[in-house]
Specification:
Layout lengths: L2 H16 L3 E5 L5 H6 L7 E6 L2 H5 L9 H5 L7 E6 L14 E5 L10 H12 L3 E7 L24 H15 L1 E8 L13 E8 L20 E7 L1
Parallel strand pairs: 1-2, 1-4, 2-3, 4-5
Antiparallel strand pairs: 3-8, 5-7, 6-7
The structure holds S-adenosylmethionine.
């Protein structure tokens, strides 16, 4: 299957295993991952955020329940909320979730904003788990016709070492543990290159409780704009 499907399947498998109740997808684009996740009835609140409201609007109504879902409602209700907003801005409606996914998002941020993104996601939203995927620049020489970045909108592409260095720094600062994996395997003689899409799976380190306390302040007002909300 194409890489984007493998990345989404990675999240679906994680959700099946850990059964998060509240999930935010940052950079949700056309909501294709959210459409897959809405079938996992352990999820009670599914939130999508993207800076580009036009791309969200295109297919957001496909998140509405099917008529069969009205006839056979799940045990617990599901709420889906979509927002226009940036992963570098704080909004209280994204705090305290079980899982935040950032699938092919960070490479679209100016490098200077990555630190702010880390503070917002790990320090402020402070979810139990975070999944971050991004291209592995070490893999690019194996991609036919790939000389610069993989996409013109990418502001950077990190090597395996650069990604891991960022991730380990985030863990130290905000009290998380990370495991590295990926999708899209290198040919068998090139395994040291790593995966085509690199993935960091972060879990909050409960033994370091209280490290990520950000003072609750008055500027805790909503930054995101609600585009769509549906309750099953
Ligand atoms: N996550 C989706 C997926 O798995 O297919 C789409 C990834 S797409 C390559 C990157 C998305 O991130 C775009 O929809 C873009 O509008 C969004 N984006 C870029 N900067 C953002 C930011 N600061 N905050 C939220 N979303 C952002």
């Amino acid at each position: 299957p194409p890489l984007y499907k493998q990345r989404h399947q990675f999240v679906v498998d994680f959700v099946k295993k850990y059964k998060p109740k509240k999930v935010v997808d940052l950079g949700c684009a056309d909501c294709s991952l959210l459409r897959k996740l809405k079938f996992h009835r352990d999820i009670e609140l599914l939130v999508g955020v993207d800076i580009n409201s036009n791309v969200v609007r295109r297919k957001m109504y496909t998140l509405a329940p099917f008529s069969s879902e009205y006839l056979n409602p799940a045990n617990q209700p599901l709420t889906v909320e979509l927002y226009e907003g940036s992963a570098t801005e704080k909004d209280p409606r994204t705090k305290g979730f079980d899982l935040v996914t950032c699938i092919e998002l960070i490479e679209h941020l100016p490098l200077a904003e990555v630190e702010r993104f880390s503070e917002v996601v790990f320090g402020y939203m402070s979810p139990a788990a975070v999944i971050v995927t991004t291209p592995n620049a070490d893999f690019n020489p194996l991609l036919p016709g790939c000389y610069g970045f993989r996409h013109i909108d990418h502001k950077f592409e990190w090597t395996k070492a650069e990604f891991q260095n960022w991730a380990l720094g985030v863990c130290r600062l905000y009290g998380y543990m990370v495991e590295f994996t990926g999708v899209g395997e290198a040919p068998c003689n090139e395994e040291r290159i790593g995966f085509c899409s690199q993935i960091g799976v972060f879990h909050k380190d409960s033994s370091r409780g209280g490290t990520s306390v950000i003072s609750e302040n008055m500027e805790d007002s909503s930054a995101y704009r609600l585009l769509y909300e549906v309750v099953y």
